[in-house]
Structure formats: structure tokens, C-alpha cells
């Protein structure tokens, strides 16, 4: 019998339906490029949504369909479009097709393997658990792991997506981790997927982070996953790789606070500042980076010292007082800046960056809050923003308190130009930052006392001569108490 690859496949009939082949093409004929594309097949098909267990609403990355895979060796694809394009007639048909697809996945050519993986992924998304159970029962887990070593980027991504869907089940996850090479090999393969910008690889590591198995946690520690993710953040080749690494790092730090310390030791603070500085960074990535920075500073006292450099101060100050910026993100950035301002020994240029970048924005926040206090009370709809807004105001006042104690010009501006001593103290008290409020009052009192001319002769009533502005400064400091 002649080889099925000895002659080219027949062309489809002219004018026929999209995706149909000529009568001469049997079921065993090799696939060929059809004029029907996933983009043209979306309309008119009903797509059954995935179950809630595969949704990660708190992930820092965008959906996996948003990542372009056009740089791979095969054409790009869309999960939603493939689900519509390869939708089976019934769940039973999809289940019966699983063994054949797995066979093609191992023994076919590269284009056949990609097509088989696309169909299997679409069947899993369309029919859910029945197809997933059939895939596991047919030994598909080990086949998919083998395909993670493929040279084709699109095939690796498809297999990673399928494995991530399957790994939502504890038993399947245990089978994946028991594959030849163990957890360490799976971690390395997923790390390769993250570098390719695969969101599903990051989500797979999130599943590992939540595992209660001591063997898995030991493998994660031995594999230095946190350090690996920090290095990926620092030199991410694409936005997708950065998002996948950030999402996984967030999951690891949320699961165990010790990973926050590992992140600080592994250079993660500088990597997160790079995320804030990225021009193509999404809002979700910025929010995740700020959250990790704030958690690290709150947990570890010396973490703020890692941010005591001019570039970090400038990047964080951009989020404070910015119109349209979420109040929670502004409050997080302001709290981090207050901690940086409190660092006793700073690098060269840090104090100037705080004065030039952070202080004006802190003054602006305090000034706007003081002006709003004289207006009508906020509407009931803004009650959700009340707590983060109070936190923002207290953090901005804390920045002022820290810098006023370190720079006489800041103190002079606070008393005479901005005249914000009283509202700043009130905001610190409302935010529970009593030590900062006391520090601010002592700094202004000390500055007001320094304005008194000690060399002037005493008057007969025992009052000393006061330098210009000294009486006003003393009065302002006294009224703020």
C-alpha cells in the first residue's frame, strides 16, 4: 500500500463549505490548511464556559487568550475560537476521540501534533470533566509531559494549558508530580513556559504553591523557585513572561510569608520596581507589584532599605496623587515611601529624590484632604473608598513628618507656604500613626525655637527678641496641638 504521504492531499471543492474536503479525502488523510480559520468560526457557535475551578480572578496576569503566540513556529491560536471551531457533536464523541488524539500527539508530524493538541484542548474546554477524566485514564498526563520538551513553542503552550486544567484535581496533580524526573523536572519545564510568556505555566506554579504535600514544598525549596521567578521578573523578555512570573510569585508569597523574605534576599525588590517602571505594564501588574512591595516592607524592617534609591523613589511617587489612579494603589505607594523616608542611612541622591518627587505629591494629598474637609460630607456611595483614602492621607502626612524632621526647608514650607501642619497632624492621628504625629510636632517646635535670636538682649519683661517669623511659627506649632 502506498504511503499516505507519497502524494499531496486533494484540494477542497470549489464553492464547498468551509472545512470540507473532497470526496477523495478519507478520514485517515493528513490535515491540510483549510480556508476556515478560528477567527471566522467564532460566530454562530455556542461555547460552553469552563467551570469556576479554572478561573483565577485574583491573578496578576491577563487571560491566556490575550497573549500572542505569533512568534512560534506554527500559527497563533485562540482558545475560545478553537473551542468553537472544534466543538464536538456531543460529550461522548469527544470522549471517544481522546485515544486517537493522544496517539497523534506522540507519533504524528509537528503540524499533526499541534492540531491534535488544539482539538484535545478544545474538547477539554467544551466538555469539561468527562474529557479530562478520559485523558487521564488513557495515560495522557505522561504524554503531555513528554510534549513539554518539544521544540515547537505552540505545542508546548497547548500541552501546558491542558496540564494546568487537569492539575486542578489533586489526584491528577500528584500524578503529574510523580512523572519521571519528579517535581524538579516539572518545575523546570514550567519555568521554560513562563519564559515563553505562557500564563498557564504561571498558574500551574500557583497550584504547586498551594500544595500541602511536604515533598512538593521541599522540591519547590530545592528548586529555588522564588529566586527563579525574581530573576525572570528582572529580565523578562516579554510582557507575558513578566505577567506569568509575577502571578506565580504573588501566589508563593501569599501562601507563605517566608517566601517574602526569600524574595527580598533574591533581588525581588529591584525586579518589582522594574515592573512599576515598565511602560507596557498593565494596571493589574502594577497593583500586584505594589502589593508585594508593601507586604515585604511591612514584614521585614530592612526591606525599605532595598528601595532607598532615587529610581525606586521616583517610580513609587508616580502613583501618589495621580488622577485616575486607584486609591488603594496610591495608599500602598505612599506607605512604602513613608517607610523609605524613615530609613536612617540613605544612598546619595535619595534625600533629594524624596524632596523633589515624593514631598510635593504628599503636600498635594494633604492639601486636597484639608480642603475637602470643609466641604459637604462624602456621599454614601464613596464609603468603600473611605478606609483606603484615610490610609492614603495618613501615609502622605507620614512622608511629610519624616522629611520635615530631616530638612529645615521642608519644615519652613510646611509652616509658612503650605500651612498644613494642623491637617497633617490630624490625619496622622486618624490613621493611628501617633509616633509620626509626635515627631512632626517636635520637629516644627524645634524649628520654631531655632528662629528665636539667642544673641539678642533680653527685654525688661524677660521676653527674648524673636527673629522674623519666629512668633508665627511658634503660634502655628502651638495651634496644631
Structure commentary:
This protein has 481 residues and is mainly alpha-helical. The chain has a domain of 155 residues: Leucine-rich Repeat Variant. Helix content is 62%, strand content 0%. The N and C termini lie far apart (99 Å).
Structural class: mainly alpha
CATH topology grouping of one domain: Leucine-rich Repeat Variant
Number of strands: 0
Average pLDDT works out at: 73
Number of DSSP helical runs: 24
Instruction: Write the element-wise H/E pattern from the N-terminal end onward.
Output: HHHHHHHHHHHHHHHHHHHHHHHH
Beta strand %: under 5%
Major sheet attributes: none
Determine the fraction of residues in helical runs and give it as a percent range.
Answer: 55-70%
What is the rounded Rg? Answer: 31 Å
Poorly predicted parts: 1-77, 456-481
| Global shape | elongated
* Measured distance between first and last alpha carbons: 99 Å
InterPro entries: ARM-like, ARM-type_fold
Amino acid at each position: 500500500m502506498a504511503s499516505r504521504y507519497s502524494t499531496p492531499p486533494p484540494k477542497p471543492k470549489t464553492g464547498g463549505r468551509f472545512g470540507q474536503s473532497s470526496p477523495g479525502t478519507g478520514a485517515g488523510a493528513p490535515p491540510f490548511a483549510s480556508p476556515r480559520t478560528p477567527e471566522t468560526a467564532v460566530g454562530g457557535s455556542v461555547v460552553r464556559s469552563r467551570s469556576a475551578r479554572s478561573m483565577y480572578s485574583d491573578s496578576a496576569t491577563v487571560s491566556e487568550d490575550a497573549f500572542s503566540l505569533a512568534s512560534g513556529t506554527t500559527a497563533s491560536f485562540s482558545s475560545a475560537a478553537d473551542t468553537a471551531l472544534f466543538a464536538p457533536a456531543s460529550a461522548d464523541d469527544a470522549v471517544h476521540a481522546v485515544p486517537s488524539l493522544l496517539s497523534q500527539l506522540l507519533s504524528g508530524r509537528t503540524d499533526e501534533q499541534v492540531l491534535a493538541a488544539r482539538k484535545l484542548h478544545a474538547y477539554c474546554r467544551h466538555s469539561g470533566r468527562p474529557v479530562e477524566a478520559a485523558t487521564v485514564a488513557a495515560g495522557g498526563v505522561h504524554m503531555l509531559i513528554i510534549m513539554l520538551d518539544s521544540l515547537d513553542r505552540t505545542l508546548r503552550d497547548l500541552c501546558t494549558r491542558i496540564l494546568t486544567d487537569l492539575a486542578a484535581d489533586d489526584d491528577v496533580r500528584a500524578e503529574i508530580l510523580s512523572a519521571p524526573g519528579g517535581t524538579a523536572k516539572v518545575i523546570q519545564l514550567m519555568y521554560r513556559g513562563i519564559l515563553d510568556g505562557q500564563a498557564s505555566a504561571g498558574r500551574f506554579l500557583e497550584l504547586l504553591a498551594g500544595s500541602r504535600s511536604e515533598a512538593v514544598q521541599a522540591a519547590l525549596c530545592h528548586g529555588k523557585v522564588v529566586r527563579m521567578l525574581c530573576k525572570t521578573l528582572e529580565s523578562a523578555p516579554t510582557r507575558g513572561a513578566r505577567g506569568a512570573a509575577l502571578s506565580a510569585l504573588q501566589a508563593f508569597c501569599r501562601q507563605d510569608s517566608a517566601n517574602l523574605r526569600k524574595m527580598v534576599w533574591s533581588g525581588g525588590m529591584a525586579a518589582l520596581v522594574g515592573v512599576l517602571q515598565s511602560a507596557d505594564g498593565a494596571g493589574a501588574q502594577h497593583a500586584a507589584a505594589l502589593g508585594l512591595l508593601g507586604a515585604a516592607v511591612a514584614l521585614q524592617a530592612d526591606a525599605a532599605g532595598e528601595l532607598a534609591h532615587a529610581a525606586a523613589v521616583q517610580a513609587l511617587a508616580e502613583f501618589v496623587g495621580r488622577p485616575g489612579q486607584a486609591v488603594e494603589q496610591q495608599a500602598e505607594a505612599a506607605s512604602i515611601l513613608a517607610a523609605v523616608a524613615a530609613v536612617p542611612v540613605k544612598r546619595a541622591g535619595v534625600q533629594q529624590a524624596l524632596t523633589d518627587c515624593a514631598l510635593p505629591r504628599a503636600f498635594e494629598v494633604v492639601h486636597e484632604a484639608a480642603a475637602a474637609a470643609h466641604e459637604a460630607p462624602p456621599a454614601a456611595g464613596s464609603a468603600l473608598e473611605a478606609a483606603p483614602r484615610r490610609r492614603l492621607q495618613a501615609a502622605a502626612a507620614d512622608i511629610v513628618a519624616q522629611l520635615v524632621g530631616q530638612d529645615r526647608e521642608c519644615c519652613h514650607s510646611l509652616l509658612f507656604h503650605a500651612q498644613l501642619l494642623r491637617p497633617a497632624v490630624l490625619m496622622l492621628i486618624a490613621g493611628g500613626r501617633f509616633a509620626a504625629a509626635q515627631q512632626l510636632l517636635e520637629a516644627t517646635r524645634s524649628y520654631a525655637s531655632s528662629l528665636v535670636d539667642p544673641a539678642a538682649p533680653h527685654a525688661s519683661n524677660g521676653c527674648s527678641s524673636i527673629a522674623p517669623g519666629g512668633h508665627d511659627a511658634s503660634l502655628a506649632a502651638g495651634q496644631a496641638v
